[in-house]
Amino acid sequence: MYANINPSIDIRLLHTTYLLLTERNVSKVAVLLGLSQPSVSASLKKAREIFSDPLLVRSGQKLVLTERGEEIVASLGAMLESLKNTINRTNQFDPGAVQSRMRVAAVNCFGAFLIPPLASSIRQKAPGISVDFFAPSEKVDLIDELGSGRVDLVIGNWPAPQQSLKSTTLLHCDIACVVQKSNPLARRGRLSLETYLDADHVSPTPGSSAFYSPIDGRLSQLGLKRRIAMSVPEYALIPAILAETDLVFTTARPYAEYIVEHAPANQLQLVEAPREFDQMNLYLLWHERAHASGANQWLRSVVRSVARRFDQTLHAVPTTSELLAAS
Q1: C-alpha distances in angstroms, 25 versus 9, 46, 125?
Q2: Closest CA to 244 of 268, 271, 260
Q3: Which residue ranges does the record assign to the HTH lysR-type domain (predicted)?
Q4: Parallel, antiparallel, or unpaired for β 129-134 and 100-106?
Q5: Distance (Å, rounded) from C-alpha 324 to C-alpha 327?
Q6: How confident is the model at residue 90 (pLDDT cuts 50, 70, 90)?
Q7: What are phi and psi of 168, to 5 degrees?
């Protein structure tokens, strides 16, 4: 489409031509641009060659536009104004006036309690922005999805963020276990690493996918491996499985509290995980291509604002109902 544009045309020449056609005075334009008169005269000569028209002609003691010059000054004015608006668009982003759709990949163990207050903030501040939340899959190349623009943000809890992506740490939280209330492990305040490894576990991530699991990834760093007796495709299945089996589920403490809080009374029990697990980090990731995007910057700020309410390094984690009430 643009292959036939004269390569000698640049923004500086177009800007100088626009000023010449509006001011109609070579000396004045030279002062405005801080250039010499011969330099401005050379730009006028070049513009005349490019547009195949004199553009400015003398009429008595002054210069006037040719008919072609009248057309060109209007086109250049609109083009330069449009370019300026495009460059300044990030600073002018108004979430309340935008109509768009964005896609966010969010890990389930945080999405369950992070997405509701996030959805509330988005609906209040930007009702015209539609957001598709989905759980990331190991079968999908998220770097490629972000790079192509098919995904805007990723909220992940892998052992370490991808180095090729922009990222920020949203929060740090403890790791906890959930078991059936009648499970003998429920009577322990904290599981030792030995007891933990002796138990059978349920996980939404197969044992072969340690890279995507902050639990199995940490155990791999220690040269250890737990026994995953059952893996499931949906986090939503785990509370029901725990209520019917002797399996152990390990997750971020806020999500452990969430599923215990929402389970039928006296069904599930939270138990502290082995100290060797340290803390779990939640990351926000995006691609360089969207770094300066007004919409992406705004959504990142909303995610960070909501995540700060959960950050255990700042204050105690509130209950899910408290967070929803604060939205």
Answers
A1: 22, 16, 49
A2: 268
A3: 9-66
A4: parallel
A5: 5
A6: low
A7: -145, 150
Q: What is the pLDDT of the chain when averaged over all its residues? A: 85
Listed ranges 223-227, 231-235, 253-257; the one with the highest mean pLDDT: 223-227
Three-state SS sequence of the chain: CCCCCCCCCCHHHHHHHHHHHHHCCHHHHHHHHCCCHHHHHHHHHHHHHHHCCCCEEEECCEEEECHHHHHHHHHHHHHHHHHHHHHCHHHHCCHHHCCEEEEEEECHHHHHHHHHHHHHHHHHHCCCEEEEEECCCCCCCHHHHHHHCCCCEEEECCCCCCCCCEEEEEEEEEEEEEEECCCHHHHCCECCHHHHHHCEEEECCCCCCHHHCHHHHHHHHCCCCCEEEEECCCHHHHHHHHHHCCCEEEEEHHHHHHHHHHCCCCCEEEEECCHHHCEEEEEEEECHHHCCCHHHHHHHHHHHHHHHCCCCCCCCCCCHHHHHHHC
Q: Looking up tokens 């990222």, which residue turns up?
A: 167
Query: Please, which residues bridge with residue 284 across strands?
Result: 155, 168
At 181-195, the pLDDT tens digits run: 999 999 998 999 999
pTM: 0.65
> Can you read off the two tokens belonging to residue 175?
């790791």
From residue 49, alpha-carbon distances to 9, 40, 172, 245 in Å are 11, 14, 64, 83
Q: What angle do CA 290, 292, 298 make, to 5 degrees?
A: 85
Axis crossing angle, helix 26-33 with helix 37-51, rounded to the nearest 10: 110
For residue 30, the tally of other CB atoms under 10 A from its CB is 20
Q: Which residue carries 């996980």 as its tokens?
A: 203
CB atoms closer than 10 angstroms to residue 251:
28
321 contacts: CB under 8 Å, gap ≥ 6: none
* Radius of gyration for the chain, computed over Cα atoms and rounded to the nearest angstrom: 30
